Amino acid sequence: MRLQGKVAIITGAGSGFGEGIAKRFAEEGAKVVVNDIDDKGGERVAHEIERAQGQGSACYVRADVSDNAAVERLVARALERFGRIDILVNNAGTTHKNGPMLGVDEATFDRVYAVNVKSIYLAARHVVPVMRRQGQGGVILNTASTAGIRARAGLVWYCGSKGAAVMLSKAMSQELAPDKIRVNALCPVAGETPLLPSFMGGDTPELRAKFLASIPLGRFATPLDVANAALYLASDEGAFITGVAFEIDGGRCV
Known about the structure:
The chain has helices at 16-27, 39-53, 68-82, 106-134, 156-176, 196-200, 205-212, 223-234, and strands at 7-10, 31-36, 58-62, 87-90, 138-143, 181-188, 245-248. It is of the alpha/beta class. The chain has a single domain, classed as NAD(P)-binding Rossmann-like Domain (Rossmann fold, 3-Layer(aba) Sandwich). Strands 3-2-1-4-5-6-7 form a seven-stranded parallel β-sheet, with helices on both faces. The two termini are 33 Å apart.
């Protein structure tokens, strides 16, 4: 049990990569706060963890990660339920549809940066003081993307938001190292998640073939791929790793 006794908040955990991370962490002994704005998905994931791991192993908390008051309530609820916070996974994310950069309207641009970038700032404001008070360090994982390392035309503004997530992770890792708080970025290639059609600009066999052609190992990332990488970085096995952009990409960034 690599996360026995740990408490983890995982945002955007009602589906996709976040769901995979939440379930994998719970399998390794963590108590998990499942966060999302999709009540149906979030409640389902928390219930499935509780059913598999036992009562008291998970709870669902609705919160918009781009809203300061909502993030404050999320952290307060985690402390109320489990008494501490050891791991934060800033996984919630969104994108604009693949297409010309000037075709993205201002409201969509603002939402992408609020969810993908501002959320990291807000979560840090509320979680870092908790980890410091606990005095035992902690782990923060920010879900970035291969798009934050290797650009894709058509996803210009999304690429920028994930590039910010990568650099925030690196800078945070330096500032928080004296507190023994490790910060790393997860950089998965696209997977079978609700955002996949937006990344591809649709969902047809032709678009899938074109997208897969850019991944040397020839398949999309799975939630388990990302969850296993997150588990390694969150556990003591990754105790000397901080400030990295961890590519989970089948060779996409080579």
